[in-house]
Write a structure and sequence with these properties.
single chain; about 110 residues; alpha+beta; 4-stranded antiparallel beta sheet; 4 strands; about 35% helix
């Protein structure tokens, strides 16, 4: 599927041709599949390339049928975009004891678990 022509024109006008075209390529390309492994359930986890900013994050080369995957149903990993896992990297090493944080992004609260 390609992006609407008027959208591409507007993005290129607003961001400049180079950045606009880069954004359109990213939006129109394949979306990578990423997961976060559950370190408390290390069996039957899918293999994947590491997400640089997430100790347990992995990029998968192939998107499995998650609902049919025994490892997913057993809780050995959580389907989560690599970008969402960046929250853990940002907060790593900060003393947030007693601090209230609000995850306003979306359910079910995956970033909160980071």
């Amino acid at each position: 599927m390609s992006l609407p022509e008027k959208f591409v024109e507007r993005v290129c006008r607003d961001l400049g041709v180079s950045e606009g075209e880069a954004l359109c390529r990213a939006l129109d390309g394949d979306t990578p599949t990423s997961i976060r492994l559950n370190p408390h359930k290390p069996f039957a986890q899918p293999e994947g390339r590491p997400v640089p900013w997430s100790e347990y994050g992995r990029y998968l080369d192939v998107r499995p049928s998650f609902t049919l995957d025994c490892g997913f149903n057993a809780g050995t990993y959580y389907v989560q975009e690599a970008g969402s896992q960046f929250v853990g990297h940002i907060l790593e090493g900060l003393d947030i004891d007693g601090v209230r944080l609000l995850d306003m992004c979306a359910a079910p609260g995956g970033k909160t678990t980071l």
